[in-house]
Design brief:
about 290 residues, alpha/beta, Rossmann fold, about 10% strand, disordered N terminus
Length: about 290
C-alpha cells in the first residue's frame, strides 16, 4: 500500500475457490488487467479466521493505484467455511465474488497427488484409504454443493462461477466473460493466459519438488512467489513434467471410478444447476 492514508479502502474482488481448480492461474490472469490489482500474496485466508480483527494489517496486502477499479485476493479456504460469504458481504456489500470449480473427481485426484507432492500425504497411501476415511478434507473439498450456494445466494448478480475445463477449452471466451462480469475495458487474453503454475506431476516430479521447491515455499514465501513468475522455473517445471509425466490420474481401476462417480452424483447435479455441465466428455470420466 502507498504511504497515503485511505480510510475508506476496501478490497472488492474475491476469488473464493476452489483448491486445485485454477485459482493460481486466475489470480495471475486477473492481475494482468490494468484495472485490477490482486494481492501480491495469494491465500490471505483472512475471512473465516481473523475477520474483523487486524483489518489494517489485512489492507497492507494491497497496493493503491488510482487507475485500479478492483482490489482483489484469492483464498481457496473461503469456500470451505459457510460463515465467509456473510463476512465478506458485511465487510463490503459491493464486492464481487468469483468461484472457479472443476470436475469434482478430477479435482479430488489432483488434490490427492498434490498433497503427496507437498508431503502432506505419504506416497504409499492409496486412494482407497482416503475414501474409507469418513469426511476426509480432500473428499469434502469436492462437494461444492455444501458451501458454494451460500456465496451464490448472498451475492446474486455479483457472483460468477465457471469450471476450469470449460475455461481452458476456450480461454479467450472465458476472459471476455470475466471482464464483462466486472464491467472492465476488454483487453486481449495475455500471451500466457493458459499457463498453469500449479501442475501436479508424477512420482519423480513430486520427489524433486519436495526436496527443492517445497523448502523455499515454506521458509521464503516471497521468494517462492517471485520464482513462480520466473522464466527459469517455468522452463524447469515444463522440463520435469515432460521427463516424469503428470500425476497418474487415469491409473485407477473401474471400481474406484464408479465409487467416485457415486460419491459426487449430487455435486454433478449442482454443477448442472449452475449451467456448468461438461458435455464434451462423460461427467464421470477421469481425465489426466
Amino acid at each position: 500500500m502507498t504511504d497515503a492514508i485511505i480510510t475508506d479502502f476496501k478490497a472488492n474482488l474475491f476469488v473464493v475457490g476452489v483448491n486445485k481448480a485454477g485459482t493460481t492461474w486466475l489470480h495471475g490472469l486477473l492481475n494482468s488487467h490494468p484495472e485490477i490489482s490482486m494481492s501480491k500474496t495469494k491465500e490471505l485466508n483472512y475471512f473465516g479466521a481473523e475477520y474483523p480483527k487486524n483489518l489494517e494489517k489485512y489492507h497492507q496486502n494491497f497496493t493503491i493505484n488510482n487507475r485500479v477499479k478492483y482490489y482483489g485476493e484469492s483464498s481457496t479456504s473461503y469456500f470451505r467455511n459457510q460463515d465467509v460469504a456473510a463476512q465478506i458481504l458485511e465487510y463490503n456489500p459491493e464486492a464481487k465474488v468469483i468461484v472457479m470449480l472443476r470436475d469434482p473427481v478430477n479435482r479430488l485426484l489432483s488434490h490427492f497427488f498434490f498433497c503427496k507432492q507437498l508431503g502432506e500425504i505419504p506416497e504409499k497411501v492409496t486412494l482407497d484409504e482416503i475414501l474409507d476415511e469418513m469426511d476426509h478434507p480432500i473428499v469434502r473439498d469436492s462437494h461444492y454443493e455444501v458451501t458454494i450456494p451460500e456465496h451464490q445466494e448472498l451475492f446474486i448478480d455479483s457472483f460468477y462461477a465457471n469450471r476450469l475445463e470449460i475455461a481452458l477449452s476456450d480461454p479467450d471466451k472465458f476472459w471476455i466473460e470475466i471482464q464483462q462480469f466486472l464491467n472492465l475495458e476488454e483487453i486481449p487474453l495475455p500471451e500466457e493466459g493458459t499457463d498453469s503454475k500449479n501442475v501436479t506431476g508424477g512420482k519423480g516430479f513430486r520427489y524433486v519438488y519436495r526436496w527443492t521447491i517445497q523448502p523455499i515455499k515454506e521458509k521464503q514465501p516471497e521468494l517462492y512467489e517471485t520464482l513462480l513468475d520466473s522464466s527459469f522455473l517455468k522452463f524447469s517445471r515444463k522440463a520435469l513434467i515432460s521427463l516424469f509425466g503428470k500425476a497418474e490420474k487415469d491409473s485407477f481401476p473401474i471400481e474406484i471410478k464408479e465409487r467416485l462417480a457415486q460419491e459426487f452424483d449430487v455435486t454433478y447435479r449442482y454443477l448442472d444447476s449452475l449451467g456448468l455441465s461438461w458435455k464434451k466428455k462423460s461427467e464421470k470420466e477421469i481425465s489426466s
